[in-house]
Amino acid sequence: MKKKNFIALLAVGCLLLPSLFSSCSKELDIHSEVAIDANTKLSPEVEEALLVGLYQCIMSPSRQGYWNIMTSEIFSDNLELLNAQWFQVQNMFNHEIPANDILLSYSYFGYYTAISRANKIISRSASEAVKAKARYCRALSYLRLYDIFTEAPIARETDDPKALLPKASPDDLFAYMIEDLKVAAESAPEFQKGGFTAPTREAAWALLARIYYLMDNKAEAGQWAERVISSRSFTIAENPAQYDGELIFALRGTKQDGDGAWGAIMSSSLISWNCFGVSQSLYDLVKPGDKRSVLFRKEKITSDGATAIFSTKYSREEDSDLIISRISEMYLISAWAGNAARLTDFQKVRNSHLSLADERRLELSFEWCRWLDLKKAGETYRPPYPQRAAEENPNLNN
After folding, report:
1. Residues of the chain whose pLDDT is less than 70?
2. Closest by alpha carbon to 180, among 259, 108, 118?
3. Using one digit for the tens of pLDDT, what is the confidence trace for 146-159?
4. Distances 8 to 130, 133, 297 between C-alpha atoms, Å
5. What pLDDT score was predicted for residue 64?
6. pTM greater than 0.70
7. Domain 3-256+318-397, what architecture?
8. Packing angle between helix 102-124 and helix 128-149, nearest 10 degrees?
9. Contact predicate 295/326, CB 8 Å
């Protein structure tokens, strides 16, 4: 988050939005209201402040960016647990999470806080472009809830704050995300060079392609992926480590704000705390000559010379950007949908000859996609709903 945006958020929050600054790790009221009349349209300054707060909550729900961002990656088979100082991390890795797990609670309530903030903007903004950005973020938050919990209540901006909402099925969640994203695709601003840090119509197209891929709808997935590719706004990088030109949407992480910390736990710098290396099965996909070899590094982890492989995709300085969508995913989705030329084009740049499934696993590693792919392929593990959430809403027990 840029410093000036944080200052704007602080100033507006102190005047109008005291609840905005309650940490997501505290007791969360996902239906809390902005302290202005419900019919009052928001000023541009307030709109911008609310958007910054929304982005921040997606970046680092509960101020626990290590785990909220990494949860489903830890579930998947791309990481090797090298050290777990916290038993909660070991439970997450082993698929043995109890309902009273605090990290699980952070994820659930944190993303509903983001949804609540999006709902406020959608119901009160005078700007269709701002509403479109909020709808994109709301869809993204529901995708994260699906990623972790599979089923989750849908909290619309028109819902009674006291309503005990039923769980929505995956199909219903996907339908709701699609509804939001199609509105966002109509009203969000067009992508401008370097403008990947805020939702755009192209970002909405890309997320639509991913959701239709998860739904196994090749026609729609391929159509939306091709829209992004045909915009010619993004290019697959010759050097995979220099991927800014590939980014469709990402959120900036800063060490100052503490919202980009997950890169550090995927490095040897935190080997004495909670640390993850790259799993051998993932690293085995890096064949001789593959340009993605620059994204992996072998490092010594013990005094007697033992080594492990680490990803270098993210910064180790606790300022990792949060990658949401890159153009390479669109090539792989288009190829999956039947356009074989897109796989050829992609593999020519990467100097690779893997199967499509293996290309997805390697290329999109640590970008929230592997667990989604495993679920699509039949993975059945679901963590429980947090104990407090189930106590407050008995519908989660049904």
Report:
1. 1-39, 62-65
2. 118
3. 999 999 999 999 98
4. 16, 18, 40
5. 66
6. yes
7. Alpha Horseshoe (1.25)
8. 160
9. no
